[in-house]
Design a protein that fits this description.
By secondary structure, the protein is mainly alpha-helical. The chain has 3 helices and no strands. It has a domain of 52 residues. The protein is 31% helix and 0% strand.
Length: 83
């Protein structure tokens, strides 16, 4: 079992206010385009978007599930940018 590492900025993530959305599961698996668009919209308004995007880019490979900084497993990782 892998340990969960919490980063300080994650406490301020706007996604925490929407726990019913599939942030950790594979959103592409059963989510509609409308759900993915809603999640991306939430990410775009988030105060810690830049930190989240940097964290997502630090993986070096695409995680197998979830969404970070408006990116799913289908979106290639690029250098961090502002929303």
């Amino acid at each position: 079992m892998m340990a969960v590492v919490r980063l300080g900025w994650q406490r301020d993530g706007l996604c925490r206010e929407y726990p019913s959305l599939p942030w950790i599961e594979s959103p592409r698996g059963g989510s509609t385009t409308a759900t993915l668009d809603q999640m991306r919209s939430i990410c775009a308004r988030c105060l810690v978007y830049a930190e989240c995007r940097s964290y997502a880019a630090s993986f070096g490979s695409v995680p197998t599930s979830g969404m970070l900084a408006g990116m799913t497993t289908a979106v290639p990782r690029r250098a961090p940018r502002s929303p």
